[in-house]
Design a protein that fits this description.
The protein is of the alpha+beta class. It is built from 19 helices and 21 strands.
Length: 534
């Protein structure tokens, strides 16, 4: 649905940029003026398929069509203002693998970050003699979600697919190819997958250690959107109703664009942010490669940030995916009773219903994703569980327990990066809930702030484009203009809850560490059932 705003007199002649943020389940096209004024947006859902063998794929053709249709709708809604559009900027969900032929056409269903088929491959790489050098170069732990693991799986099981391929792309790279005809990837995903964080280029040593040297031709050139853009293809420009001279900027991966648009960057100083999206992302900013402190446990990601610097990141595989799961269970029960209800309706009442609950003496481990967990530990067999429920607990007590589990998972991730930060900014859909803000502040025992920036991911991509087009001399001046007054008043911990959560968090860790063998045994049973079913 498109929702254009009326542009104020002061912004009427301000150039417009459109940010495309292609997530796992939703694709958004968002219009901003060059000085950060939100104009309007258009969003559409996207579906993906899961298979019993752990596969999670999405149609590349359908995703392309949804993006083009969304752009067309937004441009149409902008009306006369569309003449002010100067550029398009693209970001998208991270990890995964998309193979295209020399004409840019898809060769398969695109693999998502949720795909767990390469879990065994990732474990083999992790235990190999070369893994330490791979981790030290990329600053990033191996997991089944990443292109490098997924390429190795296809090499082992479907090598002819790679023989036919011309490019191995991430999702934003594929959309950039669709809009411009150019093979490219950005520094963020290129470096944490196959690169060297010190030289900011592909690493021949890493590619060789991954046993992918003979496939290195599939990797596209690294293009930094702050410095280079390409022209929108003529036929695409005509289709969506924009001038043929429009420039397209390749943004960084969605988590980095969301961090930029959501206020992580603070004049190059150390800062921290949590993104409560489908996944849980927990980040600290490091100004230079020398400021990076790689975890001894070899976990997490180190990702290049626009304009220099890096983000050290721990990511728990599923955040709001856990909330989607439990609220969808309620939807199923309500529908079975003959009533119509959709998931957004339950989300609208979530804050009110959470406020009717109190902290529990129960624990939820939020490992609901079929790909297991990737931060602050890597275990493809990890699965979700409740501990301590009793008959007096209501449905919304269980929902609160899920939210608390997300808070504990966030704290677990931050502690893997060192001491807890002095303040944490949170963004993402779930961050809009005041009750969730309060629970997180109390679990962390730190003040929590929210950046009032609509559509932070698309905003971050557009911010990169405005610097490229010369509206700002650098990222710092752009952030000052766009986000200077957007930080909310801090939400402080509730002391009586903090004491309780401190004890509960220690139990959360104890139970989490005790479950490793049980997860492995359950995975064996799960595989046996899959074999029976096939």
């Amino acid at each position: 649905m498109a929702t254009p705003n009326t542009v104020s007199e002061a912004n009427k002649n301000n150039p417009i940029f459109i940010g495309v943020d292609a997530g796992t389940s939703q694709i958004k096209c968002v219009a901003f003026t060059a000085n950060g004024h939100f104009i309007g947006s258009c969003s559409r859902s996207n579906d993906y398929k899961s298979t019993p063998d752990g596969g999670a794929t999405q149609s590349m053709q359908a995703t392309r069509s949804i993006v083009l249709d969304s752009l067309t709708e937004l441009v149409d809604k902008l009306g006369d203002q569309s003449a002010l559009v100067k550029g398009i900027a693209i970001t998208a969900q991270g990890d995964g693998l998309l193979l295209t032929d020399r004409h840019g056409e898809p060769l398969h269903e695109g693999w998502l970050w949720l795909d767990s088929r390469a879990a065994v491959i990732a474990q083999e790489i992790e235990t190999s003699a070369h893994y330490e050098s791979i981790f030290n170069s990329t600053g990033t732990a191996i997991n089944a979600a990443q292109m490098r693991s997924q390429l190795r799986w296809i090499e082992q099981h479907q090598p002819s697919l790679l023989d036919d391929a011309h490019s191995a792309l991430h999702w934003k790279d594929y959309l950039y190819l669709c809009l411009t005809g150019e093979r490219a990837t950005d520094p963020s995903e290129a470096l944490f997958t196959f690169g060297d964080i010190n030289s900011t280029t592909y690493s021949a040593e890493v590619i060789s250690a991954l046993k992918l040297e003979h496939r290195k031709n599939l990797l596209p050139p690294i293009v930094d959107g702050l410095k280079q853009s390409h022209t929108l293809l003529d036929n695409i420009a005509r289709q969506i109703g924009l001038p043929e001279s429009i420039e397209v900027t390749l943004g960084y991966v969605d988590v980095i664009c969301t961090a930029l648009g959501g206020g992580l960057y603070n004049d190059g100083q150390e800062s921290a942010m949590t993104i409560l999206g489908t996944t849980g992302i927990h980040m600290r900013y490091a100004g230079t490669a020398q400021d990076i402190q790689l975890p001894a446990e070899k976990t997490g990601y180190t990702i290049a940030f626009p304009g220099g610097g890096f983000v050290q990141l721990q990511s728990n595989m599923a955040a709001t995916l856990n909330l989607d799961w439990i609220l969808n269970l309620a939807c199923d029960v309500i529908r079975s009773a003959g009533h119509n209800i959709e998931l957004p309706e339950l989300y609208e009442s979530l804050n009110k219903n959470l406020n009717t609950t109190a902290p529990l003496a129960a624990i939820f481990h939020p490992y609901i994703a079929s790909a297991g967990e990737r931060g602050p530990f890597v275990n493809a067999d990890a699965r979700a569980s409740f501990i301590g429920l009793e008959q007096s607990h209501s449905f919304y007590d269980m929902v609160r327990c899920v939210v608390e589990g997300l808070g504990f998972a966030a704290r677990d991730c931050y502690e893997a990066l060192g001491e807890l930060p002095a303040e944490i900014r949170i963004t993402g859909g779930a961050a809009k809930s005041a009750a969730i803000q309060q629970i997180f502040a109390s679990i962390m025992n730190r003040p929590v702030t929210v950046i009032e920036q609509p559509e932070a991911g698309a905003a971050g991509a557009v911010m990169i484009a405005t610097v490229k087009h010369g509206f700002y001399k650098d990222i710092n001046t752009c952030v000052d203009q766009w986000l200077g007054d957007a930080v909310s008043e801090p939400v402080h911990p509730e002391i009586e809850h903090t004491r309780h959560y401190e004890q509960l968090y220690q139990l959360y860790l104890t139970f989490r560490k005790s479950q490793v063998n049980n997860w492995s045994d359950i995975a064996t049973l799960r595989n046996q059932l899959r074999n029976l079913a096939s």
